[in-house]
Write the structure tokens for this entry.
Amino acid sequence: MDNNHKKEWIGWLKIIIITIMLAFFLRTFIFATSIVEGESMYPTLQDGERVIFNKVVYTIDEPHRGDVAIIQQSPKNYVKRIIGMPGETIEIKNSQLYIDGKAYQQHFLSDEVIAQTSNFGPLEIPEDNYFVMGDNRLISKDSRNGLGLIPRNDIIGKSEFIIYPLNEFGWID
């Protein structure tokens, strides 16, 4: 093997090593994937879909109402929508969600799902905690019935993008 071929192989090897290191860094610190299990986020997300979530967004900013967040609770992660913020009071009365006594329009839900949402609360959310619900309110295990209020440290990322199945490929509302 002559010197030029050796240099070319070394160049390719450097590119491959840098690419692997960059992919490892992105996967470990910036983005990760999660598989949606169950129908609790239907129709926004469906059982078996694979999503990419942003792990950095909540280290530089706080969660916002409406975000579809990844919540880490042992032994698994949950995908839920953030509804209530620290210090707010949440109540569902006659299928209407109220935040601090004001009706909140849930544009991400169908009228049918809203009509089937049962009464809840009022509940005041303590500081550093969030109230979350699945979009499929009838079957969702969420802050109303099993997950409880979510401590800020348990919110590990924001679901950004569906990558599988390919016919659902795209941004998450």
